[in-house]
Automatic annotation (TrEMBL):
Belongs to the trimethylamine methyltransferase family. This is Trimethylamine methyltransferase. The keyword Methyltransferase applies. InterPro entries: MttB-like_sf, MTTB_MeTrfase. Pfam families: MTTB. GO terms for molecular function: methyltransferase activity. Coiled coil: none annotated.
């Protein structure tokens, strides 16, 4: 505490010159510019597919060229630059307890749980079984205790509740069992109840806006496709000024170019297109540059998580976020 106020948690920064440290400098300044200009060219000449009429209207109102016959949106460089300028460079992720607040800024590194698991080994019986809502709460309580976990994502699936309301039950279990910031899937149909629940915990919508104890996460469909619910999530969170992670999950060689450089550009296109939509809805809407992009295993046609390429891609994309002065949230393997 300083002067009666809780101090926001700021962990050490990546890339610092420290004894015993290790870092990866993926790009030169010229590389950053080449990727940026390549991204702008794709956004303006190829565009993105947007399967949401309201989002198409918003893009057009912001200055993008739209073709409603094929749902293509082409975004000029001037609009991208304007939206990058208005996006916050720091994003607060608040906890129910202010001592667990974290501020995403610069090169500071924080850690988050990940999911979503379908099964668990029961810690008491050793049985391998479907996960339940109680398991979700138990894992949230464990993460609340672990000081190196700074925020909580939906780690497990509550198979004992109706799948149409999974996300409400996950958020309730997390909010009841941790005082750390929580990520929530912004299911468009459930958003009013997600907002109501989080507002009740925070002390009202104004308090939630001031101290966002939840943040959202949406995944564009690679390559460069924004389906209806993805757009809804971005728009809903932007209107309420709640943090949103735009998280492409491309697979190089499958849903994005087989070259890592090409995948970085297509991924960057998806994040910036989502950021532009959010800024058109509300200038200053907090957007976090996300990535869970990896390689396609050409033998099994599955995403390879934990491969060297995942580490390389996500290190590269975190650097792109730093290039834009945006906070990032990327897969760690």
């Amino acid at each position: 505490m300083i002067g009666g106020h809780a101090v926001v948690k700021r962990r050490i920064s990546s890339g610092q010159a420290m004894l015993g440290g290790f870092g990866i400098n993926i790009f030169t300044e010229n590389d950053f510019m080449a990727i940026h200009y390549g991204t702008l060219e794709v956004l303006e000449k190829t565009g993105v597919f947007v399967d949401n009429p309201e989002a198409i209207d918003l893009y057009e109102s912001g200055g993008a060229r739209v073709d409603r016959s094929n749902k293509k949106v082409k975004i000029p460089a001037s609009l991208v630059d304007e939206c990058l300028h208005s996006a916050p460079k720091k994003v607060l992720l608040a906890g129910r307890d202010a001592k667990n607040d974290i501020l995403l800024e610069g090169t500071r590194v924080h850690f988050c749980s990940f999911g979503i698991g379908l099964n668990v080994y029961d810690p008491f019986t050793g049985a391998y079984r479907k996960s339940t809502k109680k398991d979700v709460g138990d894992v949230a309580r464990l993460c609340d205790y672990l000081e190196d976990i700074d925020m909580l994502e939906c780690t497990l699936t509550p198979n004992d509740v109706h799948p149409n309301v999974y996300n409400l039950h996950i958020l309730e279990a997390n909010l009841r069992n941790t005082t750390k910031p929580c990520l929530s899937d912004p299911d468009p149909g459930l958003f009013p109840w997600i907002l109501e629940m989080a507002s009740a915990v925070a002390g009202g919508e104004d308090k939630l806006r001031e101290r966002p104890i939840i943040s959202g996460i949406v995944c564009p469909q690679s390559p460069m496709t924004f389906h209806h619910s993805c757009c809804e999530g971005i728009m809903q969170y932007a209107r309420h000024e709640l943090p949103m992670i735009v998280l492409p999950m491309a697979m190089a060689g499958g849903t994005s170019p087989v070259t890592l450089a090409g995948t970085v550009i297509s991924h960057n296109v998806e994040v910036l297109a989502g950021l532009v939509l959010a800024q058109i809805v509300h200038k200053g809407a907090p957007i976090i540059y996300g990535s869970s992009t990896t390689m396609l295993d050409l033998k099994t046609a599955t995403a390879t998580v934990g491969c060297p390429e995942l580490a390389m891609l996500n290190a590269a994309l975190a650097k792109m976020a730093q290039f834009y002065l945006l906070p990032s949230w990327v897969a760690g393997g």
